Amino acid sequence: MQEQPRSIGLIDCNNFYVSCERVFRPDLLTRPVIILSNNDGCAVSRSNEAKAIGVKMGVPVFKIRDLVKDHGIEVFSSNYVLYADMSNRVMSILSEYSPIQEIYSIDESFLDLTGFSDIRERARAMYERVVRDTGIPVCVGIGPSKTLAKLSNFVAKRHPKSNGVFNINLLSPGQVNSVLTNIPTEEVWGVGRKLTASLSEFGIDTVLQLRDADIASMRKKFGVVMEKTIRELRGEACIELEEMASAKKQIINSRSFGKSVGTIEDVQDALAHFVSNAAKKLRDQHSIAGMMQVFIQTDRFRTERPQYCPSVTIPLVMPTANSMTLQKWALAGLESIFRPGYLYKKAGVILSEICDASTYQGDLFASVPEDTEIMKVLDKMNARYGKGTIKLSQDGSRQSWKMRQEKKSPEYTTNWDEIPVCV
DNA sequence: TCTCCGATTAGAC
DNA sequence: CTAACGGTCTAATCGGAGA
């Protein structure tokens, strides 16, 4: 009996953020559309029409103002509440097609399809089902490793003939070679801009060349990750699916401000808000943090202004997830680094040395035990009555730093008050 | 010389 | 009209400090 190859599927939503907006605005289906990053900064999702016009991934929107005007590109702020909800719907449907699923990102999911006798039909079925039930178009790539599944997905997206589904396992060795020779190395998972350039110096420009390079010397030159990549390209599954999302080892919350601020009160207000968010994430994964970093930054693009980007690391004697404790230390840290006379554009907090809340023995001799109960109540109230129902006094009352979000669509699927009235 | 640490880099999305 | 370039996260690597 011949052993079946591993069949790993990678399902990727097409232009995900744009597709989410289009579900509720079918009039945009044939129009150029782009979605901006936080603070309405850069174009992070583009419809095919916008790509065709020449909107590059990640371009700052002020640099394409003329393009937007001349072609009537539809511009949206990011609506993460909507995208997260749509993502949940897509992921939940995909979970029906395999018992083993890894949700890799907001718009991507791996499925282990090994052992199914109907992989071809299964892939086609999920492809049709997701768009039917959610309105989000996807592409399905299948291969013997995650890296090849990703590459298959690239082929599915690129080749109209594939109709959105491509399985590299069904090709003869000769056919595989001809596919891989036509894909540049930069499309490989794990090969970014720098590696593409370095590889090119060694005469490696196509995926086929990379796959067939000598493993020992490539490992020496580029490290273990490169070795894994090459093995995966040869069909050896080195990177396993991770079904359970593991607890974060570091939690960052930071944001650029809508406009620069000069007073410590404004920065305090923002920082308190970021600490609240970070602490909530920490509690959500049942962790506590032993280290906190606070940083503030001036606007690095305004080079004519004086620049100042200090940070301070604060060890927490008692690791905690208590917003009040963390806020107190963060604000003390801020005092120590803040200098008047600068215009600050960004601030943030980093929680690290994270460990499980239940395993920590605690300080038996602490005079005042930490009040975790109050945090539980706060989280419950905010879950029940909406984010921000209860917050600490320092948190986000000034708003002077709030990010720009001028073109956000309604929260169609999660907020009664934002459902447009049909006419 | 070895190890540990923080900082930096590269990559993904 | 202005001013205008994102946010998290991980792993590898590097270089200095201290043992």
Q: Could you explain how this protein is built, in words?
A:
There is one protein chain. A hairpin with a 2-residue loop joins strand 5 and strand 6. 37% of the residues lie in helices and 19% in strands. It is built from 14 helices and twelve strands. The protein has three domains: 161 residues, Reverse transcriptase/Diguanylate cyclase domain (Alpha-Beta Plaits); 63 residues, 5' to 3' exonuclease, C-terminal subdomain (DNA polymerase, domain 1, Orthogonal Bundle), CATH 1.10.150; 135 residues, Dna Ligase, domain 1. Helix 4 packs antiparallel against helix 5 and helix 10 runs antiparallel to helix 11. It is of the alpha+beta class and 423 residues long. The structure holds a DNA duplex (13 and 19 nucleotides).
Compact summary:
This protein is α+β, with helices and mostly antiparallel strands. It has helices at about 15-25, 50-55, 65-70, 80-95, 120-135, 145-160, 175-180, 195-200, 205-210, 215-220, 225-235, 265-285, 325-335, 370-385, and strands at about 10-15, 35, 45, 75, 100-105, 110, 140-145, 165, 250-260, 285-300, 310-320, 345-355.
